[in-house]
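User: Hi! I have a protein structure encoded as tokens and I'd like to know what sequence might fold into it. I'm fairly new to this, so please keep things simple.
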């Protein structure tokens, strides 16, 4: 059948190109999740701070990046980032327009959006940790760094992991919006293949199927991670 040949790995097939685009989507989402993890941790710390200014700044960040449409954020990062780089380049004698790599823009834009959601996940996880355990650790003379490493972080990871899984799925879908910058991720490649062959339904269905496959694999990975963390936590609790 013609559609099987088009989705295959032969000379006329787009199968290999679509798989490479899916890997690009995963790489972009991983980079965005890493950016969001760092940003989210900083914002969560600000929202939990005893200083009012830090709390206000944290609230402003999460409100803006959760309230502004993701596509608008990507446009602002893409055009604003290129304008900034071009301006800085001109200061050092460069001429003409300097574009920022779409992958970098995508990772930063989706990462900053992800950071707003991860901040709320981390904040809720910290608040879920028993205050009694922390006070008991301090009463035993544990150093703050030891309390942070041995008590706070393991429990925050346990409480935050389900939320991080949801943020991952959100970032995976948001990565499709980076197609507007020209990055050859899965949606952009599906569009190119559909336009080249005029088989729009076939390639958009194939792209959607690959997204579902990535989502299914991601769910299994996070479910196993949650089970492993829960098992380790119960084992440590029983040992203590």
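Assistant: Happy to help. Inverse folding works backwards from shape to sequence: for each of the 240 positions I chose a residue that suits the local structure. Here it is:
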């Amino acid at each position: 059948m013609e559609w099987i040949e088009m989705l295959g790995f032969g000379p006329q097939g787009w199968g290999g190109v679509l798989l490479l685009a899916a890997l690009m989507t995963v790489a972009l989402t991983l980079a965005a999740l890493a950016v969001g993890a760092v940003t989210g941790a900083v914002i969560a710390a600000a929202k939990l701070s005893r200083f009012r200014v830090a709390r206000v700044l944290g609230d402003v960040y999460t409100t803006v990046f959760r309230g502004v449409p993701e596509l608008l954020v990507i446009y602002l990062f893409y055009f604003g980032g290129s304008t900034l780089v071009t301006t800085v380049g001109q200061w050092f004698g460069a001429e003409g327009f300097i574009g920022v790599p779409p992958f970098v823009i995508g990772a930063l834009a989706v990462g900053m959006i992800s950071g707003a959601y991860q901040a709320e996940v981390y904040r809720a996880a910290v608040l879920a940790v028993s205050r009694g355990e922390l006070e008991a650790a301090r009463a035993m003379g544990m150093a703050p760094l030891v309390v942070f490493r041995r008590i706070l972080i393991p429990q925050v990871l346990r409480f935050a992991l389900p939320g991080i899984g949801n943020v991952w799925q959100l970032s995976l879908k948001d990565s499709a919006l980076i197609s507007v910058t020209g990055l050859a991720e899965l949606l952009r490649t599906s569009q190119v293949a559909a336009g080249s062959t005029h088989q729009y339904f076939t390639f958009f269905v194939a792209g959607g199927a690959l997204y579902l496959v990535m989502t299914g694999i991601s769910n299994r990975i996070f479910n196993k991670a949650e089970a492993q963390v829960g098992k380790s936590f119960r084992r440590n609790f029983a040992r203590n």
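A useful reference point when you look it over: The CA atoms of residues 106 and 164 lie 19 Å apart. Feel free to ask if any position seems puzzling.
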